Amino acid sequence: MQAIPTAQATVSPSIAQLFAYPFRIFFLSMALLAVLAIPAWVLVVTGSLSFPTARPGLFWHQHEMLFGFLSAAIAGFLLTAVCVWTQTTRTHGPRLALLWGVWLAGRLLLAFGGDLPFWLVQGVNLSFLPLVMVDAGWRIWQARQKRQFMILLVLGLMWAMQTGFVTTFDAEYLQGAVIMALALITIIGGRITPAFTRNWLRQTGGNPDSVRTLPALDLASVLALLLLLFAGVLELPALAAPVATLAALLALTRLAVWQGWRSRWEPLVWMLHLSMAWVPVALGLFAAHLWLNWPANAWLHAAGTGAIACMILGVIARVALGHTGRPLSLPRGMVTAFLALHLAAVIRVATALGLLPWPPGIGTATLLWELAFILFLIRYTGILASPRPDGRPG
User: Fold this and answer.
1) Cα–Cα distance between 298 and 286 in angstroms, integer?
2) In angstroms, rounded to a whole number, what is the distance separating the alpha carbons of residues 382 and 5?
3) What angle do CA 151, 233, 175 make, to 5 degrees?
4) CA angle centred on 240, ends 235 and 246, rounded to 5°
5) HEC assignment per residue over 379-394
6) Is there a contact between 71 and 312 (Cβ–Cβ < 8 Å)?
7) What are the CA-CA distances from residue 278 to residues 78, 156, 285, 345 (Å)?
8) Cα separation of 66 and 80, whole Å?
9) How many whole angstroms separate alpha carbon 379 and alpha carbon 16?
10) What is the DSSP string of 97-132?
11) What gap in Å lies between CA 148 and CA 136, rounded to an integer?
12) Could you give the angle at which helices 215-233 and 237-258 cross, rounded to 10 degrees?
């Protein structure tokens, strides 16, 4: 294991350091929201808690998990990665604090703004993703990195789904947003998962050439999800069902050619493969919903708790180490966190399918979710709030 530089002993956490790089404040805030929002929702739905949400409880839960939790992860990852891609100066300091303030205001207004005007609550919430896209998009445009335009397209469509959802409450827009979240995972996960697997195999004497990527397959996977989005929004189940099936098969094929089982000894790598495996599971359950009328809750939670949350935890655990100049060695307890979150997804989906009784199923899934993100906060808050041990900026 690589030794941690001794300079680490001289650094100390600070609030100001959280605004030195986008991933710091957004990853920490996202984890705090995860810890607070899920038990709050369980208490609300069971009648044990009530607070003045700006919209009905179910809407609040769905919106916060997709456009609160996920949007923070997107901002933290994308605004960090785009600086590396384009070799531009990071967003930090007051500018980053203002952007984070918009995100935080959206959470507070939705949770406690029941008496406030609709335009104010939703206007603040709908402004966050465009601000992230402008920050990232300007850098990408200046660098003429056409490869990144697909990410901006997917984010733009996700924002369009958010707009439709908050103005109409229609389930088609919620489903469309989840599909775009899966598309984003398909793009980003399709880049980093095989790349990190090759790197690990190369470093450990394995055969990196055994991990293949097929550009045509990658493109087909994203295009299938874009087609699925439009079929869903236009309410064309006769088209959506076969497209969902095709998208699931394409996602499964990608996993096979990446040969993730070769990385079974390195949790920072296998956790990405395991998280990506939820994408074909979610799409398969969506196809079963369309073909056989299986509960929509099953595929939504396979996507949300499984693909989205598990992928987020896997990525932020690695990014937080690499971008703070620390060795890529997981802190103690994080393997437990990963396994707990995946088990939470399994139990939540089984509950949605009626395989487990609702109260114990929801309760167990919630406890496992809490365990995963509390462990992350315990192990990573100090890392995120401390300067780099090597003294470099950020």
Assistant:
1) 8
2) 16
3) 70
4) 170
5) HHHHHHCCCCCCCCCC
6) no
7) 22, 24, 10, 9
8) 20
9) 19
10) HHHHHHHHHHHHHHHH-TTS-HHHHHHHHHHHHHHH
11) 10
12) 150
Q: What span, in angstroms and rounded, lies between the C-alpha atoms of 240 and 227?
A: 8
Tens place of pLDDT for every residue, the chain, 394 residues? 333 443 344 457 889 899 999 999 999 999 999 999 999 998 888 888 888 888 888 899 999 999 999 999 999 999 999 999 999 988 999 999 999 999 999 999 999 998 899 899 999 999 999 999 999 999 999 888 989 999 999 999 999 999 999 998 888 999 999 999 999 999 999 999 999 999 999 999 999 999 999 999 999 999 999 999 999 988 898 999 999 999 999 999 999 999 999 998 999 999 999 999 999 999 999 999 999 999 999 999 999 999 999 999 999 999 999 999 999 999 999 999 999 999 999 999 999 999 999 999 999 999 999 999 999 999 999 999 999 988 887 7
Comparing C-alpha atoms, which of 126, 119, 117 is closest to residue 161? 126
Tokens of 382: 């100090």
Helix H or strand E encompassing 230: helix 215-233
C-alpha angle 254-308-123 in degrees, rounded to nearest 5: 130
**Residue pointed to by tokens 């996960």:** 189
Kindly state the tokens that stand for 298.
């099953």
Burial zone of 168 (CB within 10 Å; 0-12 exposed, 13-18 middle, 19+ buried): exposed
Name the residue among 248, 232, 360 with its Cα closest to residue 302. 248
Q: CB–CB of 139/78 below 8 Å? A: no
Q: How many CA atoms lie within 13 A of 230 on its CB side?
A: 6
What Rg do the C-alpha atoms of the chain give, in angstroms?
20
Q: DSSP class of residue 2? A: P
309/85 Cα distance (integer angstroms): 24
Distance CA(135)–CA(137), nearest Å, equals 6
